[in-house]
Amino acid sequence: DAGVIQSPRHEVTEMGQEVTLRCKPISGHNSLFWYRQTMMRGLELLIYFNNNVPIDDSGMPEDRFSAKMPNASFSTLKIQPSEPRDSAVYFCASSLGLKKETQYFGPGTRLLVL
Amino acid sequence: DQQVKQNSPSLSVQEGRISILNCDYTNSMFDYFLWYKKYPAEGPTFLISISSIKDKNEDGRFTVFLNKSAKHLSLHIVPSQPGDSAVYFCAASETGANSKLTFGKGITLSVRP
User: Fold this and answer.
1) Which residue of A101, A102, A109 is the best one to mutate when testing the B interface, meaning the one whose CB has the most B CBs within 10 A?
2) For range A20-38, the mean pLDDT
């Protein structure tokens, strides 16, 4: 089992550029979560999907952030335009249903915005 | 405003001794609590959970205690092993299928050989 796959693993970009983070959930899982980890705020839930439909996006910080899940095996988190304060580790997690303990996390994407 | 607080950023213990990781919460609607463990360059992995109807849950070397009146929970690891060195996140949620997890900032545990 490949687990949750995230790409890229590392991203360095300049302020103002568009950044797209990608996630492939575990096959058969129907819930997908995007988290952001920073030193100041810890691990925050940004948005989650159930059966490809966004359920709760209240954690998305502002309109510069958007997420899509066009099908059950792929999701993207886009930041446009990026800012230095967006620098963080972004995790994707998936689960079968919405039970909390069955969330399986990907290895994360470390984003640095210069 | 942090609803789940892990006030100690780090903890160092000797191998074989007990590790106690603390977590406090402010939202009285939280009734389900989890601990996740995270190694460097990996995502968090689920470790143990507890429902508010219990005050203790044990799984091998790991025990979680819940004190609802104090809005406090703790994770005990006995005996601690060097492989337990990681970041431990406390998380909480309200009961319900659409409940989201609220995480603390994490505690870095170092177990000295």
Assistant:
1) A101
2) 95
